[in-house]
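Amino Acid Chain and Its Fold in Token Form
===========================================
Structure side: the spatial fold of the chain, written down as a series of whole-number tokens.
Position: the record begins directly beneath this header, with no further notes in between.
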Amino acid sequence: MPQAPDGVHDVYIGAGSNVGKRLFHLDAAVCGLRDIGEIVQCSPVYETDPVGYANQDKFLNMVVHLRTTAKPRELLEYLARLEQQARRERTIRFGPRTLDLDILLYDNDYYCVSDLQIPHPRMWERAFVIVPLADLTPDRLGLGGSAWGNSQSLCRLEKRCDMSDVFGRKLRAFRKLKNLTQIELAEKLAVSVAIVGSLERGTRVPTPQLVGEISRILQVSEDELFGRSASDVVGNDDTQARRNVR
């Protein structure tokens, strides 16, 4: 991947949600991040068990690679505003939240003040962070000096935590069950093969129209395809639909 220009920083941001329309909150966050920088890449979206406070619903988690000129403090404050727009409530530590945004990495810098530490201090022990992060930066060196994309610690984390790619695995499986190639599904959906590929990798959030068309073509319910009800995948009202993750 080309180096970022001078004055532009490579930042990796963890995003999670387990309240309300989880994918809607993640998609809104990605859209909001475009206003402070360039989205380079998004990881697949994973469904994960809660950590730290077990009496709550499962999370959807992903990592976003952002290039921005913002400094760490400026970026932290901007992420807090995005969380406020999602009406996040901070009542229980590690408790339910509509949107949780964390700065995981900022270039190769170390940054430590009272309310912000980069790299994120607990990310090394959390599969819901390291697994999607390894999807984007498999060759980056983690603790112990090994690349975390193929490290033993990553394998242990994956086994300990049920990491479920909520898009790619199911969509690929149902497409094969219906004996459709990517090209055939793309033709039926009137979209490009690249879009079908990004849906199967989990790096693109489907619009309400695509959700309905995919379930109709594959003859499976939206709940079977995307985990929960359709209202969890996208807003009930088309006016709430967000732009696709690119």
Q: What stands out?
A: The domain at 9-164 is CATH 3.30.70.560 (Alpha-Beta Plaits). The CA atoms of residues 95 and 176 lie 38 Å apart. Confidence is low (pLDDT under 50) at residues 229-246. Residues 72-85 form the longest helix (14 residues).
